[in-house]
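Exercise 7b. Backbone tokens:
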């Protein structure tokens, strides 16, 4: 199974495992879609890690040698406009599109063990929140050279890095080095390869130690506020904040500063 998933306590680890460069196939997108739903539904798992197998690459992108298409233009258009199905899991467009629509309010850390190219970088931008890379990592979107534009919309890359840097990547097809990705805050840290998973686990354990409802609220408020006017963002955050505090303080053994505007009985 090229996409694997294992649990270590409160941490779920996704691994892209398709030698030699962990290229993605249509079936792997379907596997990740299914595993993502399992991860999000499991309240015993608080945080995830996404990495690649081996030490050659995080993910070399989609396997462009794979036959992704349908046998007619009509079939391709139908696949675009209608939901993916189990019987067509080996075709594209398919589950990579459905995966992008999944609402995720549980954090995932990217452990980038080498180049992340094309769909590999799209996976990182869309499906991770904190990113740790090794010095040999490169992050790029070379699709433009193959007549495949559109990654800027899929990733909303301009929300992650400066406009000029994003356009350079998208229009030239050139990748960022690990140092450049760190400079432009596309990754958080660079560590040596033998320290990568240890560091990712350390950060994951720090997050997993927090109350999961607080983490979930922070994730949802952060994501939804990007598309809200300031007044609505403040109101939304206030509502979720007070709901989570009410839920937290009703649990046995939990004590903390009382909700603002209430009188302490302690």
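Sequence design result:
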């Amino acid at each position: 199974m090229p996409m694997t998933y294992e649990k270590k306590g409160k941490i779920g680890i996704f691994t892209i495992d398709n030698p030699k460069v962990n290229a993605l196939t249509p079936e792997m997108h379907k596997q990740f879609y299914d595993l993502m739903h399992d991860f999000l539904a499991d309240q015993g798992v608080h945080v995830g890690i996404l990495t690649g197998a081996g030490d050659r690459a995080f993910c070399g992108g989609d396997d462009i040698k794979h036959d992704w298409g349908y046998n007619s233009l009509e079939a391709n258009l139908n696949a675009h406009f209608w939901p993916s199905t189990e019987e067509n899991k080996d075709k594209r467009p398919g589950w990579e599109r459905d995966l992008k629509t999944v609402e995720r309010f549980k954090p995932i850390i990217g452990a980038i063990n080498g180049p992340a190219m094309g769909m590999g970088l799209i996976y990182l931008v869309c499906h991770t929140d904190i990113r740790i890379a090794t010095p040999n990592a490169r992050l790029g979107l070379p699709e433009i050279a193959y007549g495949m534009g559109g990654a800027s919309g899929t990733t909303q890359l301009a929300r992650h890095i400066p406009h000029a840097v994003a356009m350079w990547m998208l229009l030239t097809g050139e990748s960022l080095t690990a140092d450049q990705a760190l400079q432009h805050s596309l990754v958080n840290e660079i560590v040596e390869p033998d320290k990568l998973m240890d560091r990712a686990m350390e950060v994951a354990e720090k997050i997993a130690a927090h109350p999961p409802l607080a983490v979930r609220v922070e994730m949802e408020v952060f994501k939804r506020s990007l598309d809200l006017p300031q007044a609505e963002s403040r109101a939304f955050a206030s509502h979720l904040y007070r709901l989570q505090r009410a839920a937290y303080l009703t649990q046995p053994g939990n004590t903390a500063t009382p909700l603002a505007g209430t009188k302490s009985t302690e």
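Instructor comment: The two ends are 55 Å apart (CA to CA). The beta strands are 3-8, 11-16, 47-52, 108-112, 116-117, 130-133, 138-140, 176-177, 189-190.
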